[in-house]
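INTERNAL AUDIT FORM
Audit reference: QA-55
Scope: verify that the stored structure record matches its stored sequence.
Auditor: D.O.
Record contents follow.
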Amino acid sequence: MPVVYANLGSNLGNRRAFIETALIKISEDFGVCCISSFIETEPWGYESANRFLNLGVSFKSEDKPEDILFKLQRIEKSICAESHRDVNGGYKDRVIDIDIMAIDDIVLETQQLILPHKHLKKREFFLIPLKELNPEWKFPKRENSK
């Protein structure tokens, strides 16, 4: 069964409580989860005084990647329905953010989802928890890459 690697982050309010709520909901939808240590980082892609608390989570699922994304987005909205983007489309502070970092070695690019996550290599708050969850995980080769 494929292993899903996701990242949970929050930089508003009781960050740990929001992440723990998301973890409970993920385990209810997908079953047993493994989690990384928490990591605190500066916001990525925009300026804010509010630091992010992040952690990685892995779980198994036979669902299609888009269905996994839909379930995780539903969990986000159940915790906070507010958009992660400002009126100009830029990033902004958020109560909860759940991103799929990777699903095993699946390479996928649709309108809804890119796997592995398109910014995975640029975000230490993704890479550090992912390495903790699975030290053996490697970036899959894309068919058109050399």
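Auditor finding: record pair retrieved intact. The beta strands are 3-10, 33-35, 39-41, 52-60, 97-103, 108-109, 114-115.
Action required: none
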